[in-house]
Amino acid sequence: MKTKKNISKFIVLGLDGACPDIFEGKLSQGLMPNLKRLKEQGCWGDNIPFPSAVTPGNWTSIATGSKPSTHGISDFTMHTVGQPLDEHYDVFTKDRNNLAEFAWDAYSRRGLKTATIAYPGSLPQTEKKHLAIGNSGMPAENADPYTIAPSRALTAGSPNPVGPYGWQEHEKIDLQSTNDELGIAGFESRYFIDIRIKALNPGFKGEHGTRLYLGTLQQKVAGVLCCMNEKILLGIQEWTPFLDFSFSNETEIIGQCRMRITTADLEKGNLLLYISTVYPKYYFSTNSADTDGLRDKLGPYNDNLPISRFLMGWLDDQALSDEFRLQGVWEARAAVELVSNLGYRGVFAKWHAFDKFYHFFMQKIDPAAPGYCTDEYARYEKLHDMLIKTADEMIGIVLDGMDKETTLVVISDHGLMASRKAVWVNRFLARHGYISHTEEGGLDVVDWKKTRAFVSAFMLLNVNLKGRDPDGIVEPGEEYEALKKELIELLRGWKDPENNTHVMSAVFDPGKDGIFYGLGNDRDGDIRYFTTPGYTLYRSTAVNGKELLTNTFGPYLGDHGSCIPSTRFSRGGEVGAFYISGKGIRHRDGKMQIFPCDVIPTLLQIAGEKPLANQEGAVIHKCLDCADIP
Ligand SMILES: [Zn+2]
Known about the structure:
The chain has 14 helices and 37 strands. It is α+β, with helices and mostly antiparallel strands. The site of zinc ion has 6 residues, from loops.
């Protein structure tokens, strides 16, 4: 008898920042019919992140099956042991940051193809059979290796969009009067502007001209874009099609963008025109032989979710939703194509929409946030629902498109929640004499010879240890141990004078007690802490400034990463979502709780594949349908 070859495949659809309780609420309101279907076929529950409950480390756990104590990423940025204590580095790329083996590298070494889409740890690509599509998974806009030019806004007249930090990046232009006849029935031109489409990011060259006419069509304001011998008629808040322009890096590269008139008023001479990111039509992966066909079949791909542009008022609500949907739907369709038609055994895709939305707008949709205003709720909840519907559409695309050999995991790396107050730990250490510093020209200058402890990344407090740190002054041994104890007690006792609440909910030595949280690597710092829900570390390691607890300000009114990872708070929490169905998976009613490192062991078990080199998570036996498993 022949044994059937196991050709199990998987799709990990990563929804960064999605909150399980919000998903369940929207599901019961009928807004997520596809998620409902997935849940009815499979299993579901919470994904309890590892600390800190932030992006790079938790996606790494999902793709390596290991904990931060093994893969070495336990904060949004990390500090290299032995480097100056105020230095920390980005951990979205693979080069020096990840100590564990990724699934795509292991699969490639076993002769199997896998793909990643905008997934942390995917770049630089090092194994031949790993196809890395898009950027490194960093939630930055306009900065990845493929973007040719950032998105822009051109304004005339009174629109003067300003972002929450006083950002003002739009370009002022003058409307030129005209009565040019364009040969479009009923269109009467009044103004025109000339638009230069330029390569702005390093490595790219090229510049092209287009002209936008503004006028009226049947008494309504309209535009006509003249581009490459084409005339495109455009209503207000309507997209042009994607426009091709030729650029060069070393070879010729076609870049694409689209435009939208956000507002126009001919009587007042006002215009706000949004021009999307210029992104390559084809070259946005490590192997365009496979992605060229995807592009032709699925349409444009783009990494940039322009939330900062929305905050500055460049985009209307529908436009933001459209820009987010473009990437999400493409990822889902590409994942299906890759595993069903292109011979890929696994796809890890990540869509950053929820993380971006909740960071900036949790205060608009959660009454627990400061600055919540009932008048704005309806508008922002509608925008929120647009993202929810896109996520559900993505799930539906995969459920409908995947074959019987495929397992689908829908997962978030963490949730987000409202933040009421920001906590400044380095200021607290300075106040208590552990950091000695002066302020020179608005900059902190730390006197390392008189500094005994310092927060190197958001959650990572280090003692300034002799023999380890460049200007270490604390003696190893007894003095070091005593200082750690002293700092732990001090931080445990820290109270908010306004309400007598403890600021920290837990403070511990990760070398001794970190194992409970999956910590304990040398890189994890000397002391770790979790804030009480409602308090955030506000992603700052600043020393200067007097206030130890401040209001959250600017856009970061929703946050994540500083509380105990199982925290739920008001609408959100640190907890992530988890759903699984398809090959090898049974239906189960009750909610389960998993850790990020359990995903890969489960998928490899179904595929009959050997574990990864550093895998330490558990197979989620409760959700396995044993009949399907080899
Ligand atoms: Zn994240």
